[in-house]
Structures are given as C-alpha cells and as structure tokens.
Amino acid sequence: MAAGVPSRRSMVVLESREPPAHFANAGSPAPDTTLNLKIALTAANRDGLEQKLFDVSTPGNVLYGQHLSYEEAKAFAGPTPDTVQAVTSWLNENGIQNIATTGAFGEWLGFSVPVSTANSLFNANYQQFNEIGGPTKLTRTLTYSIPADLQPHINIVHPSTDFVRVSKGPQFHTPVPSSGSNNTARSLIDPITCDLAITPPCLQDLYGIPTNSATQQTNQLGVSGFLNQWPQHADLQHFLETFANVPSSTSWQLEILDGGSDPQGAENAGIEANLDTQYTLGLANGVPVTFFSVGEDNKDGDLDGFLDLMNFINSQPSPPFVLTTSYGADERDISPGLANQLCDGYMIAGARGVSVIFSSGDGGVSGSQSQSCSSFIPTFPSGCPFLTSVGATQGEEETGASFSGGGFSNIFARPSYQADAVGGYLSTLGNTNANLFNPSGRAYPDVSAQGANFVIVNGGEVGTVDGTSCSAPVFASIIALINDRLIAAGTSPLGFLNPFLYMNPDLLSDITSGDNPGCNTTGFPAKAGWDPVTGLGTPKFESLAAAVGL
Length: 550
Prior knowledge:
Layout (H helix, E strand, L loop, with lengths): L10 E6 L6 E5 L6 E8 L4 H12 L12 H8 L3 H13 L6 E3 L5 E7 H7 L5 E5 L5 E4 L2 E5 L6 E5 L13 E2 L10 H4 L12 H8 L13 E5 L7 H11 L9 E5 L13 H13 L5 E6 L9 H12 L6 E4 L3 E2 L5 H16 L3 E5 L19 E2 L7 E7 L4 E2 L6 E7 L5 H11 L11 E4 L2 E4 L3 E5 L2 E5 L2 H21 L9 H6 L4 E2 L28 E2 L1 H7 L3
Parallel strand pairs: 11-13, 11-14, 12-13, 14-16, 16-18, 18-22
Antiparallel strand pairs: 1-8, 2-6, 3-5, 3-9, 4-5, 6-7, 10-24, 15-17, 18-19, 20-21, 23-24, 25-26
Helix pairs in contact: 1-10, 7-8, 8-12, 9-10
Protein name: tripeptidyl-peptidase II
Keywords: Calcium, Glycoprotein, Hydrolase, Metal-binding, Protease, Secreted, Serine protease, Signal, Virulence, Zymogen
GO molecular function: metal ion binding; serine-type endopeptidase activity; tripeptidyl-peptidase activity
C-alpha cells in the first residue's frame, strides 16, 4: 500500500457515466479503505492485430488459417516499453512503488492504494454502491481522469465505472416431463421424443452430429466456469450412462484460476457447470474437454473472472481451439472501456485460432434476463464483434425461442462481415421497434441451436433446463468435432468463425418463425435470412464440414 501527493498534471476525463439504475449509493468508504486497482495499457498495434484477425479468419484470404503464435500476438497486443515506462514513472512519482505486471503480455499494471489516494490520483469520487434487491456490493466511481499526456498509453483504470450484477443462471426443473413410458429416463434417449425433452441423441439426430469418437488429443474444448459453479463426476457418469452414446468413464480436465476449485458432492452441484460439461462431453465424443474453474481471489466485480480467464487463455502456447461460455451481463452495466478491453481479449484469442463462443442471453430484447425496460437492452459480450453469439430455438420443427437474447449493441459498431445480412433484415423490418434499438450496432446472435427442455443430472436428480446456456455448448461441440477432422487432415482449426459463417449462410438451417419479446413489445420477429432471434440459423454438421473440405 502506498500513499502520496499526486504530481499535478493537466488531467482529462477518461470515463464518466450516469448513476446506475440497479444500484443505490451507500455512502463514502473510509478514506483508508484499500482499493485494488489495475491500469490497462494500450497495445503496440491494436489495429494491426484486428486486421490480422480478419486475414486469418476470412476464407479466400491468402493468410486464411495461418493463426498467430503467442510471440506474434504479443508483438501486436503487448504494450511498448515507452508505454510501460511512462505509466510506471507517473505512479512512482505519486508514491506507488509496488506495482504488479500481469496479463497475457504484461498489459496490466496492478497496485493497491487507499480510497483517498485513488480519489486524488484520478480526480475520482469512489463510493459504496449496493444492488437494489440483490447481493452485489461494489466500490465504484462515476467518473475518473488521467493525465492528458498519458492518454495514448492508458485504456482504462479498473474497477471504476462498471456496475455488473451477478447473473441468475438457468433454472432446474424436476421432474422430467413424462413420455408415457415406464422408464422415462431411458426412453428420452430415443430421438423421437425430442419435442418432449432434449438429450444428446436428439441433437445428434437433428443436426447430423457424428457419434464416432474424435481422434486428435491436441484438439481442446474449453468450458468456462464462474460463480462457484462446479460440475460433478457422479452426475456426469449418471448422465452419460443414461442419456448419451459416450463411455461413462469420460470426464473433463480441470484448470484452476483465481483460487477456483471443483468440490464433489450433491450439495456442490452447479446447474450451469453440469449442463455445460454434460453436453460438451456428451456430444463432442472423444474431444478433450477442459473445465476452467475461475474462483474469487482478487475479485472486485463479476467481470474480473472474464478478464483473468482470457489473460490465461491468451498466455498459453497452445490455447484450446474452442472456448464456450454461458455467462454474460447487460451491456449498459459495463463501461465502454472495460467492454472494449475484454472484447480485444477475444480478438487476440481468435487471431490465435480459438473459436470464442458465448450464449446470447435469456431475456429476449430485455437483456441477459427478463426485466422491465423502456428500450431494448443489449447483452455483453454478445455485442463484441470478435466472438460467435448463440441464440436459442425450440421444438423439432425449430422455431425461435421466446427467451432468445438478440439485438444490437450500443457500444460496438456493425462489423463488415454482417453488413449485408443485417442490412437486409432491417430493410424488411421497416419501422417496427423504431427508436428502441441502435440499428447501426453490432447485431447478434450469429447462429442458434436448441435451447429448451435439456435433460441434465444435477445433484443426483434428473431434470430439465432452458436457456441459451444450453445452445452455446451444443454449437461449441459441433465446431470442436469439425476441428478434430481438420487437425487429422493436417490443417488448421476454424478459429474465429463469423467471416466464414456469414459468407456461407446456406450451411445453416434458416429459422423463420418465432420472436423474442421484452420491454412491452413482441421483440424482433424471425425472418428469412439473418434475424436477431436465431441469427443465421441452426447448424448442419455435414454441410459445415464439407465447406471446409472434409
């Protein structure tokens, strides 16, 4: 801890926001309250990295599939020595000496100071905020400044102006709907019951997913785990024995970050963690699955785990080729600076050959969860243009699920790869929902998959869950199986998917019915082509595989 009188420089506001809607000011913390802060340093060549991402991810480009190594990515994404020196010197001048360098490429400078020092250093006013009707308590400021001469070197100071609430996650429903059989659990294996409840064989039948085992052990599929959500070996074994065509001895590899863990026992069962591991292992037969258990050490806000996970992934010499995450937040709760910092982390991963996949949210047009609103609420990180967002369908005759999160970002502009598809949709939409969303924003979801009535085993009980949390691991498993074939053929994994998908929309089944209501509206309607309920549509395994030469 350090305290000092800041050197006086010309200051400029870096971030500022209105008071958050879902938090109440709970007063000033004691001046000696410790704040653990981090400064994100600017990249040496951020725009060059974005260009590289699209070069290696766009079919037809001479660099397609030539993903970057760690050292190559570092040359773009790491800070320059001048940037490190400039910011470090300023902190030293203000009595801050114990500075930790973290991140995948040394792009974060961390330090601890009293609130009084932070307020003086950043012209800030850190206050305590409590979530209205919720458990989250944060120390945040509504505005902060940095020296004007350091503006080219600093992206954000974190935590500062973000107010992220903990996601509720999917709900577990018991008992499983009756199929009229004396053995309900076993009968649900039969694809004919897929309109009643979803199991891996249903999805294999619906999307043409192969059941034979993958062969390439270098092909890793990563599953993100947050918020003390822990998968259970006993639940997985029960699930695989009863509902899947996969050996019941199959399991995940565990990677622990930030004091994470994976305790076993029915009382430790996590609905989200069990859902994600049971369906990736139940569908991506033979693909090595790693569960990333991200704990709560050094946390100050729900998105710190997102940051730490991507710093870890991007620091690896051989990151997983697919990373699926079924967590998210409302975009309005996140500062644009933090949103961009995280989004650039996904850009780095994509440039290195990782397919980053996120669920699109479960509130239709009202955000990550259903809530009252006067205008549409985009979700994050689905609005980031460097990942693939997955919405939900339901029923054997697929229709858009009413909860499927979809819409348009207020932070990120529409990327060129979706300009035609989204422009066409907006033309047919006309004045529907006018002034309730940003028509020039990055549109999501990109694709969709089944997301209702998924059978899982949780704490020894068989039940069902709904949500785009179901859809994301399904799509991720399909990509992981295609990667297995690509690697076996001696070629590169798919990496960042969106340019390939938007160039080949006929590789997916177009879903033209359904909508995603919210904010006292019926939301967006699904239509022919891309739409903000089901994206480009649902996967057809063999068509996708054939398009990459398999």
